[in-house]
Prior knowledge:
This protein is of the alpha/beta class and 256 residues long. Helices cover 29% and strands 23% of the residues.
Amino acid sequence: MRSLLPEATDQVNLVEMYSREVRPPDGRPFVRVNMVSTLDGAIALGGRAGEISGPADRAVFFALRSLADLVLVGAGTVRAENYGPVKLPEDVQLTRVGRGQSPLPRLAVVTHRVDLDFGSRLFVGSSERPIVIAPGGADARVLAEARLVADVVESGTETVDLPSALATLADNGISHILCEGGPKLNASLVAGSLVDELCLTLSPKLALGKVQGLVRGWLEDHTTAPIGQPVAGLMALDLVHVLEEDGFLFLRLRSG
């Protein structure tokens, strides 16, 4: 993989590139959102991102996971992508331990209704218990079931209070979070000014069908509004670097 910006180089170390200037803000962990999109804004095909991705994108995906203390994901994405335990090569785990991290990042699922399959491989195949982030007003019996296979963080009443949840995670030693979506969770983090970085992979592909608006596509849903519909506002981002391989562009952007 080569760097195009801020300097042109033929070969880069992904972990080094994505480690630069990662500073947790006061009171909560550093939050990095990672996503892949076609050039016209599609973020999934048949509910999954696999066909949009490629080997270079997966290399970045694992590099970002290797740096995080915790992988954050919404319940819908857990179901659509059939999430399992986080896995990393043994040498990467040893490097993490040398940095003072656990061998593997923990995985946390944000769910408002706690409609999860607690017999799935995510919960029965993990060496370390995942975390379920749920509102305190959820069904007490379902929360009790969740506690059998996961650590439960209650935040909010009817819906998850993300700022409070992130503060709780910070109190438990989590300083670096990688959010892997989906769109509703991304939107909630942006709305709460909780995103420090966006790592956006632009896949050299076009979606066959309705052209989608990039921002509304990844923030809200897999479809978008017509061109020209007014938006509530804009979030300014600073470009940190641009990498390229096999026609894929990897943008790292930081909130102001």
